[in-house]
Amino acid sequence: MSWCSGLLHVGLQLPFAVNLPFCGPNVVDSIFCDLPLVSKLACTDTYFVQVVIVANSGMISMSCFLILLISYSLILTTIRRRSSTGQSKARSTLTAHITVVIIFFGPCIFIYVWPFNNHSVDKFLAVFYTIITPILNPLIYTLRNKEMKTAMRKLWRALVHSKEDT
């Protein structure tokens, strides 16, 4: 399903990019060399192309995000109905997953669904999406580790006690 939707997504947008006439500067002012930015370099009216890009990418981004939120909601309601022995750990895992999904899809949805152009916001989101999100994912899961939590508590206590001594 993932491969099919990805191929459909590319198949709908690639013909537009290939057929655009480019005659001016060929420098994209962003980290990403993405179709919305490339279409702005064309020396023709790209309103229709941009509408197709926003509709297609927005639909895919929003549908994936909503499917994930619905599935996590179903998992959460199932956890609440079951016994309380594994509830805490399951809820903790679910919270970490939802956090990562929101951090991942937030900038993506904002970039592709928002129909206006703001270069400074787009650049910030591109950096966030490319650098911050991949760093946060392992950080979130590392901080869930018991040994790491214990080490962080010891470090915090050592820092607090060292400040009290000075």
Can you characterise this structure?
With 166 residues, the chain is mainly α. The protein contains 6 helices and no strands. Helix 1 packs antiparallel against helix 3, helix 3 runs antiparallel to helix 4 and helix 4 packs antiparallel against helix 5. The protein is flat and about 65 Å long. It starts with a helix and ends with a helix. 7% of the residues are buried.
Helices, strands, pairings?
Layout: H1 2-18, H2 35-39, H3 47-81, H4 87-113, H5 119-143, H6 146-165
Helix pairs in contact: 1-3, 3-4, 4-5
- Structural class, by secondary structure, is mainly alpha
Strand content: under 5%
- Unreliable runs: none
Instruction: Describe the main β-sheet briefly.
Output: none
Instruction: Please state the CA-atom Rg, rounded to the nearest Å.
Output: 22 Å
Total strands:
0
Helix content: over 70%
The best one-word shape is flat
Notable features of this structure?
166 residues; mainly alpha; 6 helices; flat; G protein-coupled receptor activity; GPCR_Rhodpsn_7TM; G-protein coupled receptor
Short précis:
The protein is mainly α. The protein has helices at residues 2-18, 35-39, 47-81, 87-113, 119-143, 146-165. The radius of gyration is 22 Å and the shape is flat.
